[in-house]
Specification:
CATH class of the largest domain: Alpha Beta
Strand order of the largest sheet: 3-2-1-4-5-6
Helix content: 25-40%
Number of strands: 13
Order of helices and strands: HEHEHHEHEHEHEEHEHHHHEHEHEHEHE
Strand content: 5-15%
Length: 449
């Protein structure tokens, strides 16, 4: 069955006229950029989040995401067609509801859809005929149809008949100066033609290009394929790094040279491990679902293990290099971790390998501090609660002189690397900052790991 033509036509006309009222559920690194981009495309948008402090900060025009233009949120508010709220009644007034909530891993490293379930329950309580509901959160193929859809249908309305349902995987890359929400193509999928058509029409007015696919499950699988590809290639280049170092070859130079080939090669660079809510998570969702159906993804699983082991290997290498440098034992050594965010120029520590390295070094007996301009104070994290509350040290010649080693784990732009290069005794560089940018070194020793 399909929804009544009048409901479809009404929403189609509202989308075309940019009169459709949009609510994004979740105002994090996906939901807030999406809400602002939709608003900048001419639609009235309300951002919904249960975190009242974040809602208040957004409504005050604060720059809650550091890489936003300074007045982006304030300008949206001033336009009168954007606001944030913690009142779920806003959902009932919406024509289009976009669910953009986290889908992390559980304590046992399995998919955790609890945020999606709670969001779907909240939407279901306010659901009315004619609305378009879109899930953007990363899930395993089939989750929208088997987890979200039954919750939404719990009040008696039926997807494809009384309301429209689709999936469009988020593709945000926090801090990316080249690609933003608007310029990244948008995958749109649904299990009925009307829902897919409405998704396509709506997102076509927001982003530069849409890519319709045949079903919810196909759209869900696209995100997992993208990040599983990245997981495998990151594991490969980190494995190559160790092997090539034993051969006396700099893997960074190799990758940069190989990247000049105009076909058949894509550069991936080594590092301290993987972080964020995509690359460490999506392959787990794919592998978990495959096992659930009696299939397997052995290459992806091996890559995951390789990446998960990277912080321990880095910590072990730090111990080895300390011992070389005047016979300093890791137990009792003072070490400065440079950068705790999972990637450069963002205030985000989700699945950060830097925190795993710090924790492992302290388990080995080292005394660790950190410096990160995005984190004056260490945030509370689920995986490393023991680190919460620590303060970022101020970089100075005097500060650097106190440490036996500096481990560069996150290559933020706004760090004085020249000062570090001149003042550190031992630099262990996991990002090729000192090898690639011509930063001068003092009397200290540089090791790229």
């Amino acid at each position: 069955m399909t929804a009544s033509f009048s409901m479809f036509a009404t929403l189609k006309d509202k989308i075309a006229a940019r009169e459709a009222r949009v609510v994004t559920v979740g105002l994090g690194y996906v939901g807030l950029p999406l809400a602002l981009t939709i608003n900048e495309s001419g639609y009235p948008v309300t951002g919904f989040d249960l975190n009242e402090a974040r809602v208040a900060a957004i409504n005050a025009g604060e720059r809650v995401i550091s890489y936003f233009p300074e007045r982006r949120i304030a300008d949206a508010l001033a336009g009168g067609r954007f606001a944030a709220t913690a009142d779920r009644k806003a959902l009932a007034a919406a024509d289009i509801i976009l669910i953009c909530v986290p889908t992390p891993l559980s304590a046992v490293r399995e998919p955790d859809l609890s945020y999606v379930v709670r969001a779907a329950e909240t939407v279901a309580a306010e659901l009315r005929p004619g609305q378009l509901i879109v899930l953007e959160s990363t899930v395993w193929p089939g989750a929208t149809a088997t987890v979200v859809k039954p919750i939404l249908e719990g009040g008696g309305l039926r997807a494809g008949t009384d309301f429209f349902l689709g999936f469009s995987p988020e593709r945000e890359d926090p801090g990316n100066a080249k690609f933003d929400t608007k310029s990244i193509p948008k995958i749109v999928g649904a299990d009925d033609a009307q829902s897919r058509d409405l998704l396509d029409r709506f997102y076509s007015n927001v982003v530069t290009r849409t890519v319709p696919v045949s079903s919810l499950a196909t759209a869900e699988a696209v995100k997992l394929a993208e990040n599983s590809f990245r997981t495998v290639n990151i594991a490969l280049v980190n494995e190559m790094k160790v092997a090539m170092e034993a051969m006396g070859v700099d893997v960074w130079e190799v990758v940069q040279a190989a990247a000049t080939k105009p076909f058949g090669y894509m550069p991936f660079y080594p590092g301290p491990g993987i972080g964020g809510d995509c690359i460490p998570v999506s392959p787990v969702y794919l592998s978990w679902r495959a096992r659930d159906l009696g299939s397997a993804t052995p290459i992806i699983d091996l890559a995951r293990l390789t990446n998960d082991d990277a912080p321990d290997l880095i910590a072990g290498r730090v111990a080895v290099e300390l011992a070389k440098d005047g016979g300093v034992a890791v137990k009792g050594a003072r070490i400065l971790i440079l950068g705790i965010a999972y990637k450069k120029n963002v205030e985000d520590t989700r699945e950060s390998p830097a925190l795993a390295i710090l924790n492992r070094l302290e388990e080995m007996g080292a005394a660790c501090d950190y410096h990160d301009p995005y984190f004056p104070q260490m945030p509370v994290t689920r995986d490393h609660p023991n680190l919460a509350g620590r303060q970022s040290v101020v970089l100075s010649e005097e500060t650097l002189a106190q440490y036996d080693a500096v481990v560069l784990t996150t290559d933020h732009t706004n760090v004085d690397y020249a000062l570090v290069g001149l003042g550190a005794r031992l630099i262990l560089d996991t990002r090729n900052v000192f090898g690639g940018n011509g930063v001068a070194l003092g009397r200290g020793r540089l090791v790229k790991i």
